[in-house]
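The data are quoted verbatim for reference:
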Amino acid sequence: MGKIKVTIEKGADLFGAWAENIPGIYGEGNTVQEAKNSILEAVELYKKYNDKIPVELQGDMEIEWVFDVQSFLQYYSGIFTKAALERITGINQKQLGHYASGLKKPRRAQVEKIENALRGFIEEMGSIHFV
């Protein structure tokens, strides 16, 4: 199974996306979902019009989505409220709002704090069973 690593970032007007490990695969959109769809279309076009297909694009393919904090917060704002993210991460809502709007960019330590807290939350959710 091939794996491509796609970064999604918020630009001034659009969300941009690119495959970090395969040059020439780019996408964009007004929303994160549009950028994701654009990347998937770019992969198909790459496979259709190139004679030499990288191993990452052969057969089944896994995509690792990499977000900047602003894009993540905007994309998942309908699922995670700032209040919920504050409880999960320990970062106050006002600061999260600054990150989501692009007014401030988080330091590396804050990015790691957010990522680690979310991974812990996901792990906890994965261990839940209902009777």
The CA atoms of residues 30 and 92 lie 28 Å apart. The chain has five helices and four strands.
